[in-house]
């Protein structure tokens, strides 16, 4: 999860702080062979996603080509070049989950959230993705919100799961 609450409304001061944090990460890793993925992972945790300007910054600071940075970002599905939600929902679409209703879970989430796969809700709360397998086949269909696995999900459980994340936000205000 990003240290920036909602990267879609990041101020220039937030951006500067985030870039400074990324620069510190680069200083820790730049002389270590094969550290680009770790730097990108941490940069995404700090900034929320990896826009082109941040990729350019990383390439320059690590003294590597933008093509190398962009190649890694585009190859690994974990990295995102567009703003992501505060929470990432991943619905398992492995064989067991698919057969037991994973597709209906995805369709229900798309309808309730008003977004398609890979998109983020207007309020910046959720990004919706599918996963090939999350290793919870005995709990199928399963989905994750961030690092929490929800088992035997069906369309009737989805509203309760989503509301829990909205309540958490209200409780911290």
Outline of the structure:
The chain has 173 residues and is α+β, with helices and mostly antiparallel strands. The protein contains six helices and four strands, in the order H-H-H-H-E-H-E-E-E-H.
Would you write up a description of this structure?
The chain is an alpha+beta fold. The chain folds into 2 domains: 7-75; 87-171, 3-Layer(aba) Sandwich (Glutaredoxin), CATH 3.40.30.10. It has helices at 12-29, 36-47, 52-62, 66-75, 95-113, 155-171, and strands at residues 87-92, 126-131, 143-145, 148-150. Strands 2-1-3-4 form a 4-stranded mixed β-sheet, with helices on one face. Helix 1 packs parallel to helix 3 and helix 2 (36-47) packs across helix 3.
Low-pLDDT parts are 1-5
* Named CATH architecture of the largest domain: 3-Layer(aba) Sandwich
What is the number of strand segments? 4
Gross morphology: globular
Terminal CA distance reads 19 Å
- Spatial order of strands in the largest sheet: 2-1-3-4
Provide the residue-averaged pLDDT.
90
Question: What is the fold-level CATH name, i.e. the topology of the largest domain?
Answer: Glutaredoxin
- Give the percentage of residues in beta strands: 5-15%
Number of domains in the coordinates?
2
At the first level of CATH, the class of the largest domain is: Alpha Beta
Percent helix range: 40-55%
